[in-house]
Design goal:
heterodimer; A: alpha+beta; Growth Hormone, Chain: A; 2 domains; 71% helix; B: 85 residues; mainly alpha; two-stranded antiparallel sheet
Chain lengths: 524, 85
């Protein structure tokens, strides 16, 4: 086969595999991106059972179920083949997503609504756990060894493009209708769109042939009879699973989640930037950064996978604190000069529609800054007719929204883009790296588990642990301020970064010491 | 270098124990004691899923490193390999 023919054939395979994986990521992300509206429809506040189900949907599907999906579908992929397994994960994901968009709200069918959402969300997590390993293995097994990094890097772009597309679809749907229509039924449209994309992808994937290496192994009777036992029950392979997990995917997972998700959370929560502006900001950074997945995949074919990934982890752990300090300096209104003459304050008091006799006093403050940034604070105070029911902790609800000026906006785009570059360094070559670590007969199972523990668990934990560290630091500062003592934390908003920094450093040391950059174990 | 790889095995074993202590004492127990029922889910995840993976995984990894399972040797063609027998 000539290089051009091979290239053309491979490009078709990559496109077909990548589109399906992209759709799976899209499906997975729209739930997260629409989490606020979903919680109002299915998990309304004030009910403890619903709060429990909501937490379960977030935690369980976000990271606990994914490794189980990796085990279940990985085993299936090593037994019956890659093609049918990742076709199955696509159908499961597509149907679950579509059905989430069809579930009547809690108001219509009560407790069944959140239970159905939870079940479908769990199925999404299972499907995602099975999809990535299949797609990466399938593409890698079609690629020539010397260009495996380049070809598999296209699969690596799908997670980022999936997030990009999900944000784009949500913004477009929101923009095409009124806010109330979006709140009523429009939020379901991104879920329904999925079924069309999945349908097209299924047709494409049905036409694809089985991976040549797996087909050959099957024809020769060399496939595994018990992939789980062979992968994790034998020291010879299990030690490589542990090495892949602690020396590569753990560090990669935290760098990825910091660059794409913690950055967004920091911009929205710490800097209080308006949700749409924050989404646009992340979209630009992803758009500029995505080609670097392919670049680092290509580079890994030339200089090896290990050192690109290790360098990515090193620069990330060294630069996270300076980068987030720069982001804070660029976006925080506390550091901007206010035009006090322009400040407006409106106070309205209206009867509370839920409790007769009570009222809500809403104070809206608008502030303007010299660089063009605007700030809006809405302070809602519940005034009780019966003063004994007053509760200072529950009666005040404050929402802050910052709309950044153009210069601050692009500064933040730059800093998120730099973090996306770190992501592309650790994530671009990792599919080829994992594939080369394990033999064909147990590859799908062996590579899927460390990938989903590294990303789903170590990465997925990041928001919760980072929030815990930041809150603890802020509380310590507040306590010290009350006592008139010196503040123990200079920059409490940076404390959450210790989680990715420490895990990244451990992974870096393990990777540098134990991963042999020259060798790959593949027998093919 | 293989000596360092072996001795570092002790560090990974110690790290497993520190991580286990942190996850149980700082994360899981306060959440189990929380009055909010929804805090039980992360507590269960910390105690019964994360801790076994992190502690168990790092302990086994450290032990393998200590007994030389990750030693890298050079073959006659000057290629480097991790022990595979």
């Amino acid at each position: 086969m000539s290089f051009q023919t091979e290239k053309k054939g491979l490009a078709g395979i990559i496109a077909a595999s990548s589109v399906g994986t992209l759709i799976e990521w899209y499906d997975f992300y729209i739930f997260g991106s629409l989490a606020v509206i979903i919680s109002t429809k299915f998990f309304p506040a004030g009910n403890q059972t619903l709060a429990l189900l909501s937490t379960l949907a977030t935690f369980a599907a976000g990271f606990v179920v994914r490794p189980f999906g990796a085990l279940f579908f990985g085993r299936l992929g090593d037994l019956i083949g890659r093609k049918y397994t990742f076709l199955l994960t696509l159908v499961l994901m597509g149907l679950s997503t579509f059905l989430i968009g069809c579930i009547p709200s809690y108001e219509s069918i009560g407790i069944f609504a959140p239970i159905l959402v939870l079940v479908l969300r769990l199925l999404q997590g299972l499907a995602l756990g099975g999809e990535y390993g299949g797609a990466a293995t399938y593409v890698a097994e079609h690629s020539p060894a010397e260009r495996r990094g380049f070809w598999t890097s296209w699969i690596q772009t799908t997670a980022t493009i999936g997030l990009f597309v999900s944000l784009l679809v949500i913004i477009s749907v929101k923009g095409s209708m009124s806010e109330s229509a979006f709140g009523d039924w429009g939020w379901r449209v991104p879920f329904w769109i999925s079924i069309i994309m999945v349908g097209i992808s299924i047709v494409i994937r049905m036409r694809m042939s089985e991976s040549p290496l797996f087909a050959k192994a099957k024809a020769e009777g060399k496939t595994s009879v018990n992939p789980l036992k062979e992968s994790f029950g034998h020291k010879l392979n299990f030690k490589f699973v542990l090495l892949a997990l602690f020396g590569a995917t753990m560090g990669q997972g935290v760098v990825w989640y910091t660059g794409q998700f913690y950055a967004l959370s920091f911009i929205q929560n710490t800097l209080s930037v308006d949700v749409s502006q924050a989404s646009r900001l992340i979209m630009w950074s992803l758009l500029f950064g995505t080609p670097f997945f392919v670049f680092f995949g290509w580079l890994s074919d030339r200089i090896g996978r290990k050192w690109i990934m290790m360098l990515g982890m090193l620069v990330a752990i060294l630069l996270y604190r300076p980068i987030y300090t720069a982001m804070y300096n660029a976006g925080s209104v506390k550091l901007k000069t206010e035009i006090t003459a322009k400040t407006t304050v409106e106070v309205n008091t209206a009867a509370d529609p839920k409790i007769a006799g009570d009222s809500i006093r809403t104070t809206t403050t608008h502030k303007f800054y010299e660089d063009g940034t605007t700030y809006r604070e809405i302070n809602k105070l519940h005034l009780h007719a019966d003063p004994s029911k007053a509760d200072a902790a529950k009666d005040v609800n404050v929402t802050r929204t910052v709309n950044l000026d153009s210069y601050s906006f692009w500064q933040l785009v730059l800093w998120v883009f730099v973090q996306v570059i770190f992501v592309t360094m650790v994530y671009g070559p990792i599919a080829a790296f994992l594939v080369e670590m394990f033999p064909t007969r147990i590859r799908y199972t062996s590579m899927s588990l460390p990938y989903h523990i590294g990303n789903g668990i170590f990465g997925g934990l990041l928001p919760a642990i980072a929030l815990f560290l930041t809150t603890k630091a802020s509380q310590a500062n507040e306590a010290a301020a009350k006592l008139g003592e010196a503040l123990p934390y200079d920059k409490p908003y940076l404390e959450g970064l210790w989680y990715p920094i420490i895990l990244g450093a451990v992974s870096l040391i393990i990777g540098v010491l134990y991963i042999n950059g020259e060798d790959n174990r593949t027998e093919d | 270098m293989n000596q360092i790889r072996k001795y570092m095995g002790l560090v990974w074993i110690a790290l497993a124990l520190v991580a286990g202590y942190y996850l149980i004492v700082s994360q899981a127990i306060p959440k189990f004691e929380s009055p909010k029922p929804e805090d039980r889910i992360p507590a269960i995840i910390y105690a019964f899923i994360l801790t076994p993976i992190i502690v168990g995984g790092l302990l086994v990894f450290g032990y393998y490193a200590l007994i030389g399972e990750y030693d890298i040797y050079e073959d006659p063609d000057h290629h480097l390999h991790i022990k595979e027998d």
